[in-house]
Structure formats: structure tokens, C-alpha cells
Amino acid sequence: MEQAADITVSEVRIPFRDIDMHGHMHNAAYYAHAEAAVAGLWRHRPQGVGDPVYFVRKSACTFHRGLRLDDLARFKVSVTRIGATSLSFAVGISADGAPVADLEIVWVAADPASRQPVNVPQPVRDWLKPFLA
Questions:
Q1: For the segment 38-93, what is each residue's pLDDT rounded down to a tens digit?
Q2: CB 43 within 8 A of CB 96
Q3: Of 49, 57, 55, 56, nearest to 123 (Cα)?
Q4: Cβ-contact 47, 7 below 8 angstroms
Q5: Dmax over Cα atoms in the chain, in whole Å?
Q6: Torsion of the alpha carbons at 87, 6, 13 and 59, rounded to the nearest 10
Q7: Is 60 exceeded by the pLDDT of residue 4?
Q8: Alpha carbon distance 51, 36 (integer Å)
Q9: How many other CB atoms are found less than 10 A from the CB of residue 111?
Q10: How many helices (H) and strands (E) does the chain have?
Q11: Can you name the residues that pair with 96 across neighbouring β-strands?
Q12: Which are the contacts of 33, defined by CB distance < 8 A and separation ≥ 6?
């Protein structure tokens, strides 16, 4: 994390394991790093007894340019929508001040036992509001 006050920004130096035979980062690695950035924000949420679990409902990525080995990538997470049963996150990736990729990740809240959609708890909704883009 960049600073304790800015839990929506993280940086990653691109490791060799994420590089393909053409010298660019694997497409799947963008998703893995973006999910880790969302998890970095998510770990600060209020937790309650009987909280739902969250599953990815949708993910999409628009690539602007490829990352390479040792690039320092900056991941900025924002919340784009707080629905009744779902949460939408935007993850902007940049390097050297230029856009690299934009990801959309949509989670759905589900009952841990039945796996059926449930409402996002109000404390989580209230906590996420300041992160709305």
C-alpha cells in the first residue's frame, strides 16, 4: 500500500513470473493484480456476524499498453456502484504516469450456506460510499 491514508492505491513491481514469451505481462496477471488491489481495500471493511461471501459476477479489461518486467505499476481502486446485492469496482492501472489498463470487477453478495444472492450489509454500504467514483 502506498500510504495508510490512501487505501485505494497500491504499487507492484512486475515480477518475471507474470511475463510471457513476448516480454509483456500475461493478460491473466492483470486480473490477479487488480483483484489483489481490491482485496487491499476490502480488508479494511467493517465485519459483522453472518456477513455474506462475495463472488465475482463479471470482470472486464481494456488494455492500453503492455507492462514489462520490472515496470512499477500503480493500481487505483474505486467503487463505481453499490447495488442491492452487488458491488462494482474500477481498477485503473498506470505506469510512468500513463494509463496501462482499466478493469471492471463486479461482486455479488451471497449467503455462505445457500450461495444465493443477499443484500450487501448496510455497514459495508456506508463504508464504501466515500470510495464512489
A1: 999 999 999 988 899 999 999 999 999 999 999 999 999 999 999 999 999 999 99
A2: no
A3: 49
A4: no
A5: 48
A6: 10
A7: no
A8: 21
A9: 12
A10: 2, 5
A11: none
A12: 12, 18, 73, 75, 93
The yes-or-no verdict on residue 133 having pLDDT over 90 is no
Exposure letters 31-52 (e unless 16+ CB within 10 A, then b)? bebbbebbebbbeeeeeeeebb
Quick one: three-class SS letters along 74-115? EEEEEEEEECCCEEEEEEEEEECCEEEEEEEEEEEEECCCCC
Q: Which set of grid coordinates corresponds to residue 98?
A: 500513463
Question: How many degrees, rounded to 5, is the angle at CA 53 between CA 40 and CA 77?
Answer: 25
Cell numbers describing residue 80:
463505481
